[in-house]
What we know:
By secondary structure, the protein is of the alpha+beta class. It has 3 domains: 103 residues, Carboxypeptidase-like, regulatory domain (Immunoglobulin-like, Sandwich), CATH 2.60.40.1120; 199 residues, no CATH class; 122 residues, 3-Layer(aba) Sandwich (Glutaredoxin), CATH 3.40.30.10. It is built from 15 helices and 15 strands. The strands form 3 sheets. The protein has a 7-stranded mixed sheet with strand order 10-9-13-12-11-14-15. Strands 4-1-7-8 form a 4-stranded mixed sheet. Helix 13 links the parallel strand 12 and strand 13.
Amino acid sequence: MIAYxxxxxxxxxxxxxxxxxxxxxxxxxxxxTAYFGGEIINPNSKFVFLCKDNEVIDTIxxxxxxxxxxxxxxxxxxxxxxxHDPEYQYIYFDKNDSLMIRLNTNEFDNSLTFCGRGDExxxxxxxxxxxxEEDKSSSYDLFDKDFKTxxxxxxxxxxxxxxxxxxRQTEIGWDKGFDLYAKNMLDMNYLTxxxxxxxxHKHRTNKSVCKDLPKDYYAFRKNIDYNNExxxxxxxxxRYLTTMLSNxxxxxxSKKMFENSVKKLEIADSLFTNVKIKNAILNNxxxxxxxxxxxxxxxxxxxxxxxxxxxxxxxxxxxxxIGESIQHLAMGKKLPVxxxxxxxxxxxxxxxxFTKNTVVFFWTTEAKSHxxxxxxxxxxxxxxxxxWNFVSVNIDDSPEKWKTTLSKYNFKNTIELHATNFEDxxxxxxxxxxxxxxxxxxxxxxxxxxxxxxxxxxxxYLK
Length: 463
């Protein structure tokens, strides 16, 4: 794990930038004046977007040195995000903060550092984020374990992170406004794992643990403020809510996805009184449902229910478009063509890839544990099911990084390809989660476009 992110001064001939990066020097501004600037190494475009609640509030152009600096005469304190396509990250502004960022797009999150007034809070939040990301990447096997092992492990991990949080809170002395986000980032990662365990364990092992859970296992739910509008778009909070709703049917005997998903919509409608939060959760439920259930009749009935409950007209348009894209991936249809290259950098066609029944899986260098696990499992399955090809598609931006990573491993029995246009891939193949797997027939038609290699029943699909 990266040690506490040190403050870095941006080397720049621009006097104002150097002044901002002198962390002990402040600006004597009145009102809510704030500064935002920095440097992007290996930029993907010439723009940085400052956003509030997922809405772009400013578009900032990089100069010839890939640096930028912007003064805001009135910037309300609170949580913002900055985006440099296709990545984004959070940034918290207190009154009169002057924040500079420095990052390399090749390692966006791991390279990001803050400097200037307000930097300590943001560097803390960044380090806690990285701890949580590392935790996600290394916890795949944990959900397979028995309840005692699972519970002991996550409790120990939470205690360590809470000690880190309390220490930095004392050292930095942040206010309640920032603590809302810091505490949620700490707690929601832990509580999300608690919500995930029952249904992920059942999915992965085909064994239910619901009867083994303590009676007070879900007592923490009573202490959560489900309708705090400040958390509407804060991803740790939204991720927890979405996971919690996926777990509400743990004690149900129903295995029907349609009925359970409609139940989630109804629970969300009754649980959330804040319209923004309710709409955000309804959107998430609907999006995930469309990825899992390819029954056209069910989809229409489900969307009718969603449109009845949602008041977010813009998101309704997006959901409708996604639903249409998913229909292009229905069983028996030809897999849409996307831009793929092999290790020699040559373009490959669907006809060249799908010469026999094929399992297509995805990976990124940003999730090392998943990359290793999925390749290991693919190698094992290839031996057991030689009638199937296994095609690995890397979705990183850099083909050089893809090749360098593969050179460090000895992955066998898989065809390694790279997607050169992720946005096109994401739209045509509806790639929204790294665990997604597609089963393609030898003639290039779709056998099943939405499965998981880690599904306990996965091998049944290969028969």
